[in-house]
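Good day; I would like, with your permission, to put a structural problem before you. I would ask you to consider whether the tokens describe a fold that such a sequence might reasonably adopt. The full record is reproduced below for your convenience:
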Amino acid sequence: MLKEERQQTILSEVELHNRILLTDIADSLDVSIDTVRRDVKELDADKKLRKVHGGAISLGFTTNSARNQNIYALDQKIIIAKKAASMLKDGAVIFLDGGTTCLELARLIPEKIELTCFTISLPVAMELSSKSNVTVISIGGQIAKEAQISIGANAIHNLSEIRVDFSFIGTGYVDAIYGLTEFDWDIVQIKKAVIKASKKTVLLSISEKLNSQHRYKTCDINTINTMITELDPDNQLLSAFKHHDIKIL
């Protein structure tokens, strides 16, 4: 495989999943880790991604208070966020995950709706702080610097003491058979705690993540009550999920 092809594959993976590991890319491309490391270093120098220890993250994942124009598949994520926003009702207590799709949902919450919103995400908390009718409660813990979310024992303990009507979560990978998976063990533990604290769990995922899996399991697909993608619910790509007890929007 030519270097240009390798680097395009790396960019595609990092844009889709927000974060990648050098070992995973080396395995999938059947090249050495040193080769991938050089490719990532070049892509970082070209400002196409950000190199981090053991991997890389997308520029769109390094979220600040200003709207980030590097967000991958932004149009699709806005469609998902609009569908999710239609589920919100006055007086609800919700949880919003980290990630770019949940940040779009935070932006789209109507000003007139009164909500209480828990979140582990610093960017989501900052976005919601401008909405006068939303009470924002930040779940504290160790901060994962790349994802800008709380992780660790303190965050998990805090989540164990709440019960929300809906949690809106993202995932790195989702499959109708294997469920929700991630490559980061700490992220999995946080998501498990969020799901346990939720009366109903809503998954927000662009369709490109469908039929993908990784090493650490968050939950079975049936644990999710509703899955929202940018697709029409009758789209053929969603047919495998219709065999499960899950609502598709």
Notes: The CA atoms of residues 54 and 126 lie 29 Å apart. DSSP finds eight helices and 15 strands in the chain.
